[in-house]
Write a structure and sequence with these properties.
By secondary structure, the protein is mainly beta. It is about 0% helix and about 55% strand.
Length: about 120
């Protein structure tokens, strides 16, 4: 079965950096685009970044452009999110996502907290 396991979250000061990682299994990882979402308390879950199957095309929401970088390793079946220049408004639970066989799959998420 599809499994997505996120790691790397934590507490960081404003301006700091974190690197999130997602380990994927149960599907042909290299043949599916992957995404990172986040959900802040009291808000809806939102797409943060996505990456194509080969990793040659990436997309970001405007608030994180230039600060976040999504990447993937199709040998290790992992997708990462490097987050630099973090801001308090980046505080959220971050989720790894794949749309596989007509449904979304999510990990349990990893908490990112950015203090002022």
């Amino acid at each position: 079965q599809v499994q997505l396991v996120e790691s790397g979250g934590g507490l960081v000061q404003s301006g700091g950096s974190l690197r999130l990682s997602c380990a994927a299994s149960g599907f042909a990882f290299s043949t599916y685009p992957m995404s990172w979402y986040r959900q802040a308390q009291g808000k809806e879950r939102e797409l943060v970044a996505s990456i194509s199957r080969r990793g040659d095309i990436t997309n970001y929401i405007v608030p994180v452009k230039g600060r976040f970088t999504i990447s993937r390793d199709n040998i290790k079946n992992t997708v990462a999110l490097q987050m630099n220049s973090l801001k308090p408004e980046d505080t959220a639970v971050y989720y790894c996502n794949v749309y596989y066989e007509n449904r979304d799959y999510w990990g349990r998420g990893t908490q990112v907290t950015v203090s002022p």
